[in-house]
Specification:
The complex is a heterodimer. Chain A has 2 domains: 215 residues, PmbA/TldD superfamily (PmbA/TldD fold, 2-Layer Sandwich), CATH 3.30.2290.10; 230 residues, no CATH class. Chain A is 20% helix and 40% strand. Chain A is built from 9 helices and 26 strands. In chain A, strands 1, 2, 3, 4, 5, 6 and 7 form a 7-stranded mixed β-sheet that branches. In chain A, strands 13-12-9-16-25-22 form a 6-stranded mixed β-sheet, covered by helices on one side. In chain A, strands 8-17-18-20-26 form a 5-stranded mixed beta barrel. The longest helix of chain A is centred in the first third of the chain and has 21 residues. Chain A starts with 17 loop residues before the first strand and ends with a strand. Chain B is of the alpha+beta class. Chain B folds into 2 domains: 229 residues, 2-Layer Sandwich (PmbA/TldD fold); 215 residues, no CATH class. Chain B has 9 helices and 21 strands. In chain B, the strands form 3 sheets. In chain B, strands 1, 2, 3, 4, 5, 6, 7, 8 and 9 form a 9-stranded mixed β-sheet that branches. A 5-stranded mixed β-barrel of chain B has the order 11-16-17-19-21. A 4-stranded antiparallel β-sheet of chain B has the order 14-13-12-15, with no helix packed on it. In chain B, helix 1 crosses helix 2. The chains are: A alpha+beta, B alpha+beta. At the A-B interface, strand 2, strand 3, helix 1, helix 2 and strand 7 of A face strand 3, strand 4, helix 2, helix 3 and strand 6 of B.
Chain lengths: 461, 453
């Protein structure tokens, strides 16, 4: 755990400038069995210190792997010099930052860091179960993965903090051949917030869920092509979460808005059905922790929920302190940095569509000819709101009943058009947090939602 | 060559010499601690990097970032048990080496023995110079400011969403238990622009250009297809969805050409699918797998590549090789481990720098000879299925009708099978984009499904 020997250095912060000093350690542990072979067996750690200074409308940033008080002074001076370099050549029309409430938030828990043997033994047992139970698979891959970010933050104004965000997963990929001898695969990430030995105590607890995954693979062996075109679809919670993050979330990040995103001219306007409310949650949802809680961001802003769409109306953006000034909004703690060497960027935290009142059963029964889309491999969106998600698990819906599985495909649309077609929203809610969002830097994010019924363009033949 | 071999006397900067000595000291410490931890073989890499970066956000200069970082990566073998660890922490701190050795050795002890892992035999030690390690801050600022101003003046509808230019200088030392030691002094500028075009509330999709450079002698807008892409993006503000569904021809810009070929090869010619035997090309070495116009070379020596790989992770000297030679599969892009497990030849380099052989027609001629199809420079698609099926949205695209680019498209999907596409190559352009990393032409493919509303 990081020891705070840096708080006294705040006396070196330059008066009149906003300064952040961050000491950070990221840890990653990974072990992978591919067909029973241990192909990855690695541990990685990155530690260091950084300073960022906002002065005359420019940011200067400097980082060093050396975590000593002397290095802190070096990076503080270098960051100031970098901001001064721009000011020497350019004039900025950006406003100074509004003062924030001051305070301090410290973590209450330490996080365990199991030996590599724990990871390998765990996935070996899972792999043996798969190999023995399902000998007909053409390939199997089981990966243990854990990462954590621990940060000590001191700011000239705002909240100081000491935080840690651990998460851990077991990824399972199963591959079989279909009737034409073509490979088909299914994937699932088990796990979430917490250290690996806290999340995964007994491999046998995963076995029933692997049986379910294999059943999905069996369905997929018989899968048919989706019929291409605009269809009525029910997006499962993972797809809705992807929609919230990719198709809407990125367009309402204030830096993307400044870059010309479709959300700019739509603030205050109806962009979705009134059944859609969307929030970027900071740390709690209805009294329970969200997948990846954030309490203070890396600019020293105390984290609060950001309401983005309220009953179909676009009401807010996600901001840094700088963009909050430009849009005259309140910063809510969305400025996050991945490594000690990274500057804070506007990032999502736990972005979700809120559940509605419909039952999933009724929703499926309501579709005469369409698809039930459950899981996604990846997603991308444009500043125009045009989005695309890969679909890896989906089923036909015929006359209100689930039919055959469909082959991997893609859905696409324009977010603010597609969201207006949502006419049913289920009453349950699921979260996922296994991946990284990419935007100059990677960042762990949570996303979630209910099932929604909508019209969307699906690829196929 | 993309690099040169030098002598220690040719390192002019005394601080660089000091860094090399320091890295050698760290390597010695690693060797001793690895031996004490029971390592029977090992390989390691230790490096020190200084980088500087300017950021422009929403068309305005925003951030100047400098980074000083250290990295130590170790692979430890205890008998045939293998573990790896990497630490990006200060090398001045003695705990950095101790912690990395401890993690690598503990990981090795936790693994099952597997004799397929190897360390290369001793190679002649050398000092390698790559790119340009000397950073010129004022020149980098000037070139970026010049590019921003030129875009504002010449392309008034363009909004630079983000531009990042950086220079990284890296001094590294590779060592292994066979006695090999490679010192590398390297540096390069990276230029990365992402932008879109806007007219009032209407806007285009975003698109980007990126380059790796060893010098700043040219304005950025003179590089590769930067100016052409800016010009086309201004024509992409008012788009229409394609109506209906039709099979036609796909013409790809160079970066998309590379993406499609890389996706295809990932599904059939790389480690995981060769190791588990699920590749559809598993029995195709020496056989025709694509149209004979296609030759894909993984280069390390081409002088148009800035800083190609000089040695592999296992410590073998890196060499050029073809994956596909005139349509025939000649090599998989696989590690020594996979090669030892499967009996196939290991890839002579990591495949980081790709050259695709050019054809004889201009891109204009290729478009002229296309009766119906789509010209696209970016594709937003789901990960292709393991059998090569893919679908997704064509971005920054134009419809081709009767040999002419007609309307800019949006909300238009394309779908097909990557392996089929490689057998349906119509033409490969004479011109190729040179970006300091790869050298790739335009390509046209038959048999793509284009669908929209």
């Amino acid at each position: 755990m990081l020891t705070d020997i840096y708080s006294d250095l705040s006396s070196n912060f330059e008066p009149g400038s906003h300064t952040e000093l961050r000491i950070q350690t990221n840890k990653t542990r990974r072990a992978c069995l591919l067909g029973g072979y241990l192909t990855t067996n690695s541990r990685a750690e990155a530690s260091g210190i950084s300073a960022r200074v906002y002065k005359n409308g420019f940011y200067g940033f400097s980082s060093s792997a050396s975590c000593t008080p002397a290095s802190c002074l070096t990076v503080l001076n270098a960051a100031t010099a970098n901001a001064d370099y721009f000011a020497k050549h350019l004039t900025s029309d950006k406003p100074s930052l509004r003062p924030l409430e001051n305070g301090s938030v410290k973590i209450k828990e330490d996080v365990t860091d199991p030996e590599q043997k724990y990871y390998i033994d765990f996935i070996r047992e899972v792999d043996n179960y798969i190999a023995n139970t399902y000998p007909d698979l053409s390939s199997r891959e089981v990966t243990a993965y854990a990462d954590s970010m621990e940060k000590l933050l001191h700011v000239s104004n705002g909240f100081d903090s000491h935080s840690i965000m651990p998460r851990s997963y077991v990824y399972v990929l199963l591959t079989a051949e279909d009737r034409e001898g073509q490979p088909v695969e299914v994937f699932y990430p088990f796990g979430g917030y917490g250290a690996f030995d806290a999340n995964f105590k007994d491999p046998a607890l995963l076995f029933p869920r692997i049986d379910d995954l294999y059943a999905t693979l069996t369905d997929k062996i018989e899968a048919v092509f989706a019929s291409a075109g605009f269809k009525t679809c029910i997006l499962g919670p993972m797809m809705t979460g992807m929609l919230a993050h990719e198709a809407v979330g990125h367009t309402v990040e204030a830096d993307i808005v400044l870059g010309g995103s479709v959300a700019g001219p739509n603030l205050g306007k109806t962009v979705a059905s009134e059944k859609i409310t969307m929030v970027d949650f900071a740390n709690n949802f209805r009294g329970a922790p969200v997948p990846l809680p954030v309490y203070v961001d890396d600019e020293g802003t105390k984290a609060e929920d950001a309401l983005l769409i309220d009953k179909g109306v676009l009401v807010g953006y996600m901001n840094s302190r700088e963009t909050a000034e430009l849009f005259n909004m309140k910063p809510l703690g969305n400025a996050r940095a991945y490594g000690y060497y990274d500057e804070p960027l506007i990032r999502m935290r736990n972005t979700a569509v809120l559940p509605g009142t419909d039952s999933l059963k009724d929703m499926i029964a309501s579709v005469d000819d369409g698809y039930y889309l459950l899981d996604s491999s990846n997603g991308q969106a444009d500043t125009t709101g045009e989005f695309m998600f890969g679909v890896t698990i989906g089923y036909e819906i015929k006359h209100g009943k689930l039919g055959r599985a469909i082959k991997d495909t893609t859905i696409s649309g324009v977010a603010f058009d597609m969201l207006k077609t949502v006419d049913m929203v289920s009453n349950e809610m699921e979260w996922q947090s296994c991946g990284f969002c990419g935007k100059k830097q990677p960042m762990p994010v949570g996303m979630g939602g209910p099932s929604v019924r909508c019209r969307v363009n699906i690829g196929g033949r | 060559m993309s690099y040169s071999v030098i002598t220690i006397d040719q390192i002019n900067d005394p601080q660089d010499l000091e860094t090399v000595d320091f890295l050698r000291f760290i390597a010695k410490q690693c060797r001793e601690e690895l031996a004490n931890a029971g390592a029977t073989r090992y390989a390691g890499s230790v490096s020190r990097t200084a980088s500087n970066e300017f950021n422009v956000d929403s068309g305005k200069f925003s951030l100047f970032r400098t980074q000083f970082s250290d990295r130590l990566a170790l692979t430890c073998y205890i008998g045939d048990r293998r573990g790896t660890a990497s630490v990006s922490s200060s090398l001045e701190n003695p705990n950095t080496v101790t912690s990395a050795v401890k993690d690598a050795a503990a990981s090795a002890l936790a693994a099952e023995p597997d004799p397929a892992w190897t360390v290369a035999p001793r190679e002649e030690s050398m000092i390698i110079l790559k790119g340009n390690p000397v950073f010129d801050k004022d020149a980098m600022f000037f070139r970026l400011a010049e590019a921003v101003e030129t875009i504002n003046t010449r392309y008034p509808l363009i909004m630079i969403e983000q531009a990042v230019t950086s220079h990284a200088k890296d001094i590294s030392l590779y060592f292994n238990s066979s006695g090999t030691e490679f010192v590398t002094v390297s540096g390069a500028y990276n230029v990365d622009f992402m932008y879109s075009a806007h007219d009032g509330d209407n806007g285009s999709s975003f698109v980007g250009n990126d380059f790796v450079l060893s010098s700043l002698d040219k304005p950025f807008l003179d590089l590769g297809l930067f100016a052409k892409t800016l010009e086309n993006t201004e024509k992409q503000i008012y788009t229409v969805p394609y109506k209906g569904k039709r099979v036609g021809r796909l013409i790809t810009g160079p970066s998309l050409t590379l993406d499609l070929i890389a996706d295809a090869l990932a599904n059939v010619a790389e480690d995981d699918v060769i190791l588990d035997g699920t590749s559809l090309w598993i029995d195709k070495i020496g056989k025709k797998v694509t149209d004979e116009q296609l030759t894909v070379t993984c280069t390390v020596s081409d002088p148009r590549v800035i800083g190609g790989q000089t040695f592999t992770d296992e410590g073998f000297p890196a060499k050029d090789y073809n994956i596909i030679d005139k349509g025939v599969l000649t090599n998989f892009n696989i590690s020594t481990y996979t090669a030892n497990k499967t009996g196939f030849r290991r890839a002579p380099n990591a495949g980081d720098n790709v050259i695709i052989a050019n054809g004889t027609k201009s891109i204009e001629q290729m478009i002229k000879e296309t009766p119906f199809g789509i010209y696209t420079v970016r594709f937003s698609g789901g990960e292709p299925s393991v059998n090569g099926d893919f679908s997704g949205v064509a971005k920054n695209s134009f419809l081709i009708e009767n040999g002419k680019l007609t309307v800019p498209l949006a909300e238009t999907m394309i779908s097909g099978n990557l392996l089929d596409l490689l057998n349906n190559i119509v033409d490969i352009s004479e011109e190729r984009e040179e970006n300091g990393v790869d050298l790739v032409p335009y390509m046209s493919f038959d048999g793509i499904t284009i669908s929209g509303e």
